[in-house]
Amino acid sequence: MPKAFLSKRLVAVVVLVSFMLLFGLSSIASAADEVPGAPQLQANSAILMDAETGQVLYQLNADTAAPPASMSKMMTEYLVSMAVKQGKLSWDDKVTIGENAAKQIGSRILLAQGDQHTIKELYIAMAVYSANDATVQLAEEVSGSEEAFVKLMNETAVELGMTQSHFINSTGLDRADMPEKYRPTSVEGETMMSARDAATLAYRIIKDDPEFLETAKIQEYKFRQRDKEPMKNWNWMLGSNKDNPTLRKFAYEGVDGLKTGHTSSAGNCFTGTALRNGTRLIAVVMGVPGGVNDGKRFLETAKLFDYGFKSFEKKTIIDAKAVVPEHESLKVKKGKSTEVPVVTASDLTVLVPKGAVVEPVVQEVKSTEDPLVAPIAQGDKVGTVTYKYKDPSTQDEKTVTIDLIASEEVDKASWWRLLLRAIGNFFSSLFQGIVDLF
């Protein structure tokens, strides 16, 4: 083959590779610059959420379903706690360990069939040590069998708005790692969850069961008196680990939960929550590369928390008891006045990037009745106002509806006043009709 031809091909390859590199680098730079200051994560998916409002501050492939490993135990924790709140179980109930629990592999507290422990002891083993055997036994206590409990998990996921979640067991283990006799036949596939769903579940736990964090932040717990060593919490990010020489570099001020996860198919996962200066955030990372013992998932989570706490501030974009421009009052029937002045019942406070401006626009105002009927007391809910605004952190279009309340009372009019008003309205409409003829 002629040398000239080889030279031309070599030049063409160099140009093509240079173009691809240039295009790729510019694409990465463009993605990084899309949200100024946003962290660059080594994770397959991630999300950062405000635990008070559910507002999303950062997202990376947040709706991609992936194996969550033991993060799926958050659903088991939630359902066990709800069963206790509903009186179906008691924390002090003593239960006997069954075959399915005793045969579990992976992280476990080495329960033997026939052992007896309280619901609370098993719950702590699940929350602190991610014990698969304790988790399965709790699932069976709630629903009679793990398979029936999985049905409840999937039904609850739908109720909570977890659109990319599917559970096949209570633990997050791959199907092949379950005892063969107890592998589910009523559900197919493997357990899957998106980062957004994990954050949504954490959000519901914090809202509905805030006392769970008292369990989640336990550093270590001696399960049996005869045990030589206590269980150690897999969450190395706990703020209390600042005094632990081994884990100090992972400790993050304010972290008090929630759940780690690791399998070969899931990689390293973590759903964490931290409270600082009155603001609580939820962060999820999934598919973080590396080994389970290198702590990289916690360092990636720290990037999210740093971004949230350092780059955002709370801003009230709609004040409570504020007048809605051009909708200062609503019509009233049978009242001394024909209108009632209205104001917003509550404010709307969101986390925004420092220095950002958010301008909500009124989209719709509605009365609870059309028209309202007197008497109306001051403070009564009389309608709603819907605002639309652009979320400054994600650029998503958002809508929010706030109640409207009466800022003054409107007493019911006497029959005499109503009669005179009706006569006046009659002649007014009659006069207007005559005017319209000309």
UniProtKB/TrEMBL annotation:
Domain Peptidase S11 D-Ala-D-Ala carboxypeptidase A C-terminal: 312-412
Matching Gene3D superfamilies: D-Ala-D-Ala carboxypeptidase, C-terminal domain, DD-peptidase/beta-lactamase superfamily
Family classification: Belongs to the peptidase S11 family.
Name of the molecule in the record: serine-type D-Ala-D-Ala carboxypeptidase
EC category name: hydrolase
Top-level taxon: Bacteria
SUPFAM superfamilies attached to this UniProt entry: beta-lactamase/transpeptidase-like (SSF56601), Penicillin-binding protein associated domain (SSF69189)
GO molecular function terms noted in the UniProt entry: carboxypeptidase activity
Annotated catalysed reactions: Preferential cleavage: (Ac)2-L-Lys-D-Ala-|-D-Ala. Also transpeptidation of peptidyl-alanyl moieties that are N-acyl substituents of D-alanine
